[in-house]
Amino acid sequence: MSWQAYVDTNLVGTGKIAKAAILGLQGGVWAFSPGFTISTDEQKKVVDAYKNLEGVRTSGLVVAGIKYFTLSADGRSIYLKKGANGVVIVKTTQAVLVALYEAPCQAPEATPVVEGLADYLIAAKY
Known about the structure:
With 126 residues, the protein is α+β, with helices and mostly antiparallel strands. The protein contains 4 helices and 7 strands, in the order αββααβββββα. The protein is globular, with a radius of gyration of 13 Å.
């Protein structure tokens, strides 16, 4: 399966994720939803967030031009929120999944979708 198919089918195709991207831990965008533009600076900050979790907890992150506050952040997952929408970010062995959910979908519906794909990719050594 192509990286784009993971975004289109396994994330956005579920109906729980509005837009998504897969970022390489070494840099670059592997796949993304149309209109979900994460700048090069934002990509670096998302990937580097795992090196400074306390900073992310304190300051939040900007994703696709929107500043989100942090609900929680650990060595695997970062959960962000702004109003009724949020972002689930999950690190795998070689990539970072970035998934935006929009109301009426909420975190308890979106999170298992992203975490489940991350589990699959980790098991496949990605």
